[in-house]
Fold this protein.
Amino acid sequence: MRDNGPMNESASRLYPRVTSFRSRRGALTEPQQASWDRQWPTIGRDVADEPLDADTWFGRSAPLVLEIGSGTGTATSAMALAEPDVNLVAIEVYRPGLAQLLQQIERDSIPNVRVLRGDAVDVLENMVEPESLTGVRVFFPDPWPKARHHKRRLLSAPTFSLIASRLKTGGVLHVATDHADYAEWIDETGNAEPALATLDRERSPIGLERPVTKFEHKAHRVGSTVTDWVWGKIEA
């Protein structure tokens, strides 16, 4: 059955009143819709209250990594191909972006990606069990640059705490931004989370090499500095 976008309760959940993402709705091209129709019933889900049973969904037990805000999936697909032994769940609300990722998965026969459509905080709170993740990736989240919008920033102190609670001991949070003010915010807030500590990259249980996307190329062209952080979950 064709997915025509969120309705009623689903709409409220996919597009809550205050979110860390910008609500962007768009129609799919015919090839995108065809790929969506073929794959979504198997590898895609909307956010729900049902706990995520990753082993059953992937059909295997493997280290589980969440990518928050996968966009059009360029980094997602490249990192999944580079890490065939990792189960990667991409979270995104923008349907055309998810459709592009589904096309890449289909084109490149990528077996180790699943996609969730919805708010990442909702996913973490209601679908992800504590101490279950080997890694979380947050690449170039919306900086919400105006001061009155800072409350919408994803990487607030409560979200850092929530992510840390879902990581296994030794699990990794990898963050990147090209926005200078947000970088200061992330650095201060992330380093203040007592369950996280800066991790020696050589000890990371997941890959840390990000492919340079068109978005990042644009940031470099305008002279923006891209900053990465790698934190590890420490024992309580």
Q: What stands out?
A: Residues 1-9 have pLDDT under 50 and may be disordered. The radius of gyration is 17 Å. DSSP finds nine helices and eight strands in the chain.
